[in-house]
Amino acid sequence: MKKKLVSCLISFTLLSSLSTPLLAKAQDNTQDIKGNLVIAGGGVGTSNHDIYEKFLSLAGGKEKAKIGIIPAASTTLQSSEKFKKDLVKYGVNSDSIQILPVSNHDFSDTQRDESTWKSQVNDKKLSGTIKGLTAVWFVGGDQTKIVDSLRQNNGSDSEALKAIWDIYRKGAVIGGTSAGAAIMSDVMVTGGDSLGALKESIGNKANKHVNEGEDGKKEYEPLSVQKGLGFFQHGIIDQHMDERARLGRLAVAAYNSERDKEQNFAYGVDEDTAMVVNNKDQKIEVVGRSGVAVLDMSKAKLKSASSFVSKQKARSGLENIKVSYLSPGDKINYHLKSFEFPKDKVETKGFEYYSFNALPATGVFTPYGRLKAYLSYSLVDNESMKSANSYVYDSQGWGYEIAFRKNSDTNGYWRYTDGQKDDYSIVNVGMDITPKTVKFQPDKETSLTYKKSTFSPSESPVYDSIKGNLLIAGGALGSSNSSVYNKFINLAGGKQAKIGIVPAASTKFDSSSHFKEDLIKYGMKAENIEVLPISNHDFKGTSENESNWKANMNSDKLAQKVKGLTGIWFVGGDQTLITGSLRNENGSDSKVLQAIWHMYKNGAVLGGTSAGAAIMSNTMLAGGDSYGALSYGFTDTYDDMNQQEGGPAYLEKGLGFFQYGLVDQHFDNKARLGRLIATAYEKGNKNQLSYGIDEDTAMVVNNKEKQIEVVGRGGITLVDLAKVQANDKFPSDYKNILISCITPGDKVNMTTKEIVINPAKTSTRKNEYYSEKIGPNTGLFSPHGVLRKFLAYDLIDNAQSKEIKSYAFNQNKGFELTFRKSAESNGYWAYTDGQKDDYSIVKVTLDIKPIKVAIK
Q1: Distance CA 139, CA 80 (A)
Q2: Could you report the per-residue pLDDT of 499-511, keeping only the tens digit for each?
Q3: Is residue 712 scored above 90 in pLDDT?
C-alpha cells in the first residue's frame, strides 16, 4: 500500500510503562473462540489466490459468505471498494459484501462526511448487521484510526466491536492487511523502525535528540505502541516485515511489552503473506508468497555497549534472541511453541548445499539482502558459515551490529516451490544486537588489490537483419508466471510452436523436464517439445553417460533438427557448461550453434533463464559479486559455486545473441549492480546500456524494432556509463553513472536509449508522496533493501531527499554509494496487482567512492 509510515502518535513505551492500562488485555475471556484469523502483512496482490481462497473458505465459502469491510484505517474508500471487487472476482455475490460505516474521519474521495460515522458505532442497526456476517476484513492504512473508531472515549468497546467479538467467538473469520493486521494483537505497534526502536526504546533515552536536522526531523522513528483489539491473544504481531525491515522493532516491542515471553512468540508477517490462526487447533498456518518471522524472546536480555562515545551515554542492545522464519505451508503450534513442516521439505543441517564465505549484510550491494534469503543462503544452508553479521546506523555512524549465529538447535528446511524456486524455512537462529559506532573515511589503498581483466573476446558477428527475438529471464522463473511463459510461446509461433530445450547448464534433468511440463500446462503439445542431447558432462540420476553428448555439437542430424525449431530454451545452472557444450575446443562455433544462429536470424525466439540469460551477450558474466568486482577486479580462474556466489568477477565469451550490451541476471536477489558496472566500464561499449534482470522477470528483445520490453514480476536495471568519470589510477572510484529501473509494461530503445514508461503510471517529480529524512541503507534492518525499492521510496518519491547513501564493506574496507537526483531524474508510479506500489525510475546519478571502515 502506498502509505506514509505511521507517525509517532504516542510516546514510546519504556520498560517502566509495562504495567500501565495501555497494555491491559483487550479481552479477558478468550477461551472457546470458534472463529479464525487471517492476518496479512500488507501488499496483498489481487492474484494471491491462496490468501483470498483461504479467507473465503473460512467465511463459509463463496456461496454462503457474508462479508463486512471496515474502511476506518484508510483516508479514502478506494481500498475498501477495491477489496470488494476482488472478492466478487473470486466468486462472492456483490450483495453479500458490505462496506461498513465505521470511521472516525472523513474520506477524501467521497461527497459525504464520514467523520459522523464515529457516533454510529453504538447503533443497534450496525451491530445487528455485523451479527449477521460470517467475516470481517480490516483494510490497511493507520491502525490507530481503527481502534479509535471502534472504541469509546473511555476506552471501552463500542457495540460494533462487541458484535465483531460475538461473531468471532461463534465462528466468523476476522481478517485484515497492514494496519488491519497490526490491530489483531493486544499490544499494537503503531510506529517506529528498527533503528529508532533500538536507539530510543530500550533504556537509551540519552540518544533521543542525536542526529536531528534543523527541522527537528530524525532519520529514524522511535517505537510506539498502544492497546490493540486483541483478537490474537498469543503474542505481538507486526507487518510489512520484509519490505520495511522491522525485525529490530518487533524484538524491542516484544522485549518491552510482551507479558509472557516464556509462553508467547512474537510474529512479523511479510507483505503478500498471511498467518492464518486456527483457534480450535491452536495453530498458525503460513499462506501466500513470502514468510512469517517468529521471535522467541524467552531468554532475551539487555546487552550493554563496551565503549562510551561523546554526546552519548552507554547504549543498550539485546542478546539471546531466537529467530525463526517460516514459509507458506509451514505451521506453528503457538501453545507448544513448536513448528511443523511439509513432508517434502528436507533438512539442511548436515546436508548444506552451499559452501562460500558470505559477506556481512551491509547495504544494497549485499547478495541476498533481505532477511529470510540472507539467513537461508549465507548461514543456515551454508556449511562454511557459523555466523553472519549485519549493521544498522544513522548518518553519523551511531548504531548496532546484528550478529546471527547457528545454535545447536538451528536448522533449515528446503524444497522447490512454484517451479524451481528455492523455498526455505529457518528455525532457531541466534541473534545478538550490540551497540556499535561505524566510521567511514576515504581510502587511498584499494587500488593495490585490484586486478584488471585480461579477458579479450573476439567480436561476434553483428547482424542487422535478425528476424528473431530473445526472451531473457533473470532466474527463479515461477511456473505460475503466465506473462513470461505466454510471451515465449507466442514469440515461438503459438501453441503449435516447436521448442528445443538445451539442458547443458544443469547437473540434472529436473529443470528441463519441469520446463517441458510447464509449456504443456500452458497449452503446448508434448510431441512439439524436445530436450536436446546437448551437454559436455554427465547428469545425476540417469543411466546414460551424457558426457558423451559433447560430440553431438557437430552432429549434422542434430543441427538439421535444430533448424526446424521455432524456439530454443536454455535452462539455468552454470553458464560455462552451455558455452562448453556448443563451442569447439578452438573457440569456433559448432554446427549446432551455427544452426541455432540460422533459426534465430530467420525468425525463431531464443530464451533462457539464469545461466541461460548470461550466455546471451558477447561478454558473459560468469562469476563474482558486486563487492568482489569493485574491490578485487577480475580473475582468470573459475571455481564453480564459490565463484558464482562471490569474489572477483570472472568473464568468458558468451554466445552473442544479444547485440546491444551486457546482460546480468539474479539482479535483485544477488545485488549485482557493482559487478555489472565494473564489467561494463572495462569491457562494455560506453554508448550502450547494460542490463540487469531481476528474478522471475524477463527482458524481451525485439530486434526489428530495436526495443526491449519488461515482462514478469520484477524489473530491469539499466546502467548508462556514457557520462561516467573514473580515475584509471584508482579503480572503482566512479562519478556520474546513470541508473534507471523499469518494470513490466515499460520499454527502452536499445540504440537511442529512450525509455518509454507504461502510460498507466504518473510522474512523481514535484508530486512526491513522501517527505522524510532518510538515513543510509545499511543492511537487514534497513527498509527497502532491494535497489529499486530503495531508490523509489527513499529518493525519487521523497520530497526531502536530494541524495541517499548506502555502504558496502567487509572488515575495514568498502565503498560509499551516493545516489543523487539530477535534472534528468524522474519517477513514475502506479498501483499494480491490487494495491501494490509499482515504480519506474529514470536517470538517477550514482557515485561510488572507496572508503576505510572503523567499527567500535
Answers
A1: 6
A2: 999 999 999 999 9
A3: yes
* Angle (nearest 5°) at CA 773 between 217 and 790: 155
Q: With cut-offs at 50, 70 and 90, classify the pLDDT of residue 14.
A: very low
Report CA dihedral (643, 646, 648, 654) to the nearest 10 degrees.
50
| Residues in CB range of 691: below 8 A, 6 or more apart | 661, 662, 663, 664, 699, 708, 716, 717, 718, 719
**How many other CB atoms sit within 10 Å of the CB of residue 526?**
10
Which residues are CB-contacts of 823 (< 8 A; sequence separation ≥ 6)? Answer: none
94: exposed, middle or buried (C-beta count within 10 Å: 0-12, 13-18, 19+)? Answer: exposed
d(CA 663, CA 703): 16
Element (H, E) at 568: strand 567-570
DSSP state of 763: E
Q: Region 65-92: what's the mean pLDDT? A: 97
Q: Is 132 exposed, middle or buried (0-12, 13-18, 19+ CB in 10 A)?
A: exposed
Rg (CA), the chain: 27
The letter for the amino acid at 18 is: L
Write down the residue that cell numbers 543441517 correspond to: 349
Helix H or strand E segment including 601: helix 591-601
- Work out whether strand 836-855 and strand 826-832 pair parallel, antiparallel, or are unpaired: antiparallel
Angle between helices 78-89 and 49-58 (to 10 degrees): 80
pLDDT given at position 207:
44
| pLDDT > 90 in the chain, percent | 89
Average pLDDT, the chain: 93
Edge-to-edge strand ranges of the sheet holding 135-138: 97-99, 67-70, 135-138, 173-177, 36-40, 273-278, 283-288, 331-333, 338-340
Residues 6+ apart with CB under 8 A from 19: none
Architecture of domain 15-317: 3-Layer(aba) Sandwich (3.40)
Tell me the DSSP string of 392-448. Answer: EE-TTSEEEEEEEEEEEEEEEEEEEETBTEEEEEEEEEEEEEEEEEEEEEE-S-GGG
How many other CB atoms are there within 10 angstroms of residue 530's CB atom?
15
Q: What is the pLDDT of residue 202?
A: 76
Give the start-to-end residue ranges of the domains of the chain.
Answer: 15-317
Of the candidates 591, 596, 564, the one whose C-alpha atom is nearest the C-alpha of residue 498 is 564
Burial of 407 (0-12, 13-18, 19+ CB in 10 A): exposed
Q: What nine digits make up the cell of 431?
A: 541473534
CB burial of 365-382 (b: ≥16 within 10 Å; e: otherwise) equals: bbbbbbbbbbbbbbbbbb
Decide if 617 contacts 652 (C-beta within 8 A). Answer: no
How far apart, in whole angstroms, are the C-alpha atoms of residue 170 and residue 187?
A: 24
* Spatial contact of 212 and 767, defined as CB atoms under 8 Å apart: no
User: Which of 58, 77, 82 is CA-nearest to residue 836?
Assistant: 82
With 0.70 as the threshold, say if the pTM is over it: yes
Name the grid cell of 224.
Answer: 510506539
- State the Cα–Cα distance between residues 654 and 616, nearest whole angstrom: 6
> Which of the four pLDDT bands, split at 50, 70 and 90, describes residue 4?
very low
Tell me the pairing of strands 292-296 and 387-393: unpaired
Give the count of alpha carbons within 13 A of 78, CB side only. 10
Cross-strand partners of 739: 719, 844
Backbone angles phi, psi at 200, to 5 degrees: -125, 0
Helices (H), 151-216: 159-170, 179-182, 194-200
Q: Which amino acid is at 123?
A: D
Going by C-alpha positions, the residue among 371, 204, 236 that lies closest to residue 303 is 204
For residues 211 and 678, what is the distance between their CA atoms, to the nearest angstrom? 34
Give the integer Cα–Cα distance in Å for 546 and 550: 8
